[in-house]
Amino acid sequence: MTFRQTLKTTIGLALCLGLAACGSGSGSSDGNASPGGKSYHRPETAGTNYDKSSIWDVFGPNKSDQTVQVNRYIWAATLDVLSFLPVQSVDPFTGVIVTGYGNPPGGGQAYRATVHIKDPALEARSLNVALQTRNGPVSATTARAVEDAILARARQLRIGDSKL
């Protein structure tokens, strides 16, 4: 046997084993099989990886993990407080706002920010602000002051909504 024939045989065997692993498991003894041999899922397993239909669904991203709820008041307050910065990208699914460099009103120093809203609660732990100048990161007190301004504005927006 030549090397090329051995390689073809090995690849063919690997493909056959891979396809066999994707079988339907009709011989299960958990009571989910019908007389025709088809396997049905119990309602309590809905939403798990058992309901994937192909190999690409199993190894692809989980659709339920892609939706992260962010606090809408913190989101709006962030865009409001940092309105002097040009927005480069926003991702409401992960709660990330990235801005470009901009000068605050009355200031000479250019800043840029990356904001991560990681929780739907209107609390300080839900917000993470990273500020940077052209010379490097800003002090922790400056970043904390911006976080406090965003949270104060978010509370104002929430109070304004409750009066409607």
UniProtKB/TrEMBL annotation:
Transmembrane segments: none
Signal peptide residues on this chain, from the entry's feature table: 1-20
Cited InterPro entries: DUF3576
UniProt keyword Ribonucleoprotein, yes or no: no
Record's compositionally biased regions (Low complexity): 27-37
Domain of life, source organism: Bacteria
Coiled-coil region(s): none
Pfam families named in the record: DUF3576
Keyword annotations: Signal
Annotated segments matching region Disordered: 27-46
Protein name (record): DUF3576 domain-containing protein
Species: Pontibaca salina
Organism phylogeny: Bacteria, Pseudomonadati, Pseudomonadota, Alphaproteobacteria, Rhodobacterales
